[in-house]
Amino acid sequence: ARLAAAEAAAVAGGTVKVLAGGTAAWRAAGLPLATGAEHMADEPDDLWLRPYDRTPEQQRKAALDYLAWEIDLVQQIDRDGTARFLHVRR
Questions:
Q1: Which residues of 59-83 are buried (b: 16+ CB within 10 A; e: fewer)?
Q2: What distance in Å separates the CA atoms of residue 1 and residue 17, rounded to the nearest whole number?
Q3: How confident is the model at residue 87 (pLDDT cuts 50, 70, 90)?
Q4: I need a labelling partner for 29 at 20 to 30 A (CA). Which of 39, 52, 65, 75 fits?
C-alpha cells in the first residue's frame, strides 16, 4: 500500500493514508478482516476457476464455451487480419 499510495492519491484526486504496520497491525489491533469478495468494486472478470470450483452444469458450460472459442479461432485470426502466418484449410 505504501508503494501505491502516491499513485492512488493522484488518481483519486485526494489524500490517501497508509496504515503503519499494514495488515499485521490491523489484525493485532483485533479489527475485522474480510476474507471474501464482499467489498469488490466490480464483478470479477479476470479470475480463473478450477474445474472443481464449479458445479457440474458450470463445468459443462465452460467446456462448451472453450470448445466454441477454439473452433472459431482460425476465423477470428482471419477477421483480425494482423496475423503473419498461414494456415491450411481442410
A1: eeeeeeeeeeeeeeeeeeeeeeeee
A2: 9
A3: low
A4: 39
